[in-house]
Specification:
Layout: H1 2-5, E1 9-15, E2 20-25, E3 30-34, E4 37-42, H2 45-53
Antiparallel strand pairs: 1-2, 2-3, 3-4
Length: 62
C-alpha cells in the first residue's frame, strides 16, 4: 500500500469489526484498507475519527 500513497505508513488500529486496518501516513493523512481496497479516511486524525464516527463516505484511492 505504501507504493499507492508514496509515503511510509504506520498501523494505528482497526475498524469495522477488525475488517479494516487503520493507518497514518507521514504527512498525517488517515487511511484505511483491507485486501486490495484502500481509502482516505481523513486529511488528519481528527478528520478521520469524525468521518468514522459519522459513517461518512470515504474516497477509494486508486
Amino acid at each position: 500500500m505504501k507504493a499507492r500513497v508514496h509515503e511510509k505508513l504506520i498501523v494505528i488500529g482497526m475498524a469495522y469489526n477488525r475488517y479494516m486496518t487503520l493507518m497514518l501516513s507521514e504527512s498525517g493523512r488517515m487511511l484505511g484498507g483491507y485486501d486490495d481496497f484502500l481509502c482516505l479516511i481523513g486529511t488528519d486524525v481528527q478528520d478521520g475519527m469524525s468521518n468514522l464516527f459519522d459513517r461518512r463516505q470515504m474516497p477509494e484511492l486508486p
